[in-house]
Amino acid sequence: MISVMKRFFWILVLSYVQVVLSVAQPVTRILFIFDSSYSMQARWESGSRMDVAKRLLGELIDSLAQVKEARVEIALRLYGHSKGYPPQDCNDTRLVVPFGPDNHQRIKRVVQSLKPMGTTPIAIALERSVEDFPPCELCRNLIVLITDGIEECGGDPCQVSEQLQAKGIVIKPFVIGIGLDEMQRRAMECVGRYYDAGREEDFRRVLGLVISQALERTTFQLNLLDADQYPRESDVAFTVMDQKSSKIHYRMMHTLNSLGMPDTLSGDPLVTYRVVVHSIPQVELRDVQLSSAKHNILALPLQRGKLKVKTAKVIGYKDLKVVLRSEEGAILNLQDINTEARILAGTYRLEVLTHPPYFTDIDIKAGEVTTVEVPVAGMLSFQTVASGYASVVDENGQRVLDLDEQATRHLIPLQPGRYSIVYRPKAARDLFFSVTRDFEIISGATTVVKLN
Known about the structure:
InterPro entries: VWF_A, vWFA_dom_sf
CATH topology of the largest domain: Rossmann fold
Pfam families: VWA (PF00092)
Protein name: Ca-activated chloride channel family protein
CATH class of the largest domain: Alpha Beta
Shape: elongated
Strand order of the largest sheet: 5-4-1-6-7-8
Number of strands: 29
Strand content: 35-45%
Largest sheet: 6 strands, mixed
Helix content: 10-25%
Number of helices: 7
Domain VWFA: 29-179
Structural class: alpha/beta
Organism: Schleiferia thermophila
């Protein structure tokens, strides 16, 4: 008994640890992709674009080194940094400082040593950034692209960015454009969240804004509203996922705490979520964007009633299944006879897998129990001298079922009603050896059908 209790205790402990890990604060990994192309030597207020960018990025890295309350790692990828222009080298991009907890000064030293040299292979830099993020289950991967130009190597940065997001490798990138004109800005807006830095002060402000957004977390709760628009529905599984990549953030059983309120979950303001509640039928919220400035309340109508399908006796069946279909015919649920299920309010088609199937249309009302009583089956007893082919047809001429062609004794449950059985021995090779018998099935009774 003690060993059983210990085992149960550790199961509870491990379950708790799994829940804690699932909501633990992730590591935020920020990859800076920095433009060191030839055009960065252009004049920009107090110096060249490169000089200003190096100085302000250095200030930002110093600030990040002081962030202790958040788990943050940074890395640096360059492009256009090692090959002169002309000629054009579209492979001129490299991860120069990988992710690490204390690499801030190393990144600063690399940035301060840069000289504008090459071309602008933005698509290739983004594509190769896949390799810059080591596998990590609990990480938020962000890219901050700093550029003073647009793609010059024929690639499609927008398509690459879309692929990175769809695969769940990164959250939608930040793009900081230094002195881009209107046409260039439009070309870069599809790559990620675009911020324009037309002046030095704009660049400083935008850098701060981007990092602030990158480090922000928020909270939310999921309210499931009943017919009175109160959040009293619960005890149903739900999934919260990244709408772009389908990466699952939470998969839990919705619960109301001791105060009758849904639990609070941690969320990411940078992610667009899709919330799926696994009710019958499922319902969902799409395009969910959390605000970082407040606790977010997500409300989803979940007006449910109960469906109870029963029969006084299950005669002749090992088990009896009930199929719930939408009005269009899609299967929504499969349940056993004499059980209850919570169903969204609405109109449905019910099918009980008796012989023949029992059909009825039902209307589920919120907060009410809808009961469907299926007539008790009767039994068909049919015996032949030799094995053969036999089918049961109802009084409307619809086939009900075929009997086992290897057997000579048959005991089949059927719904009450009038039927015919058509039989021909296997050995007989003439249709005139077919025999037909009409019979009636009565609830709870056995009907014996003889051939003579």
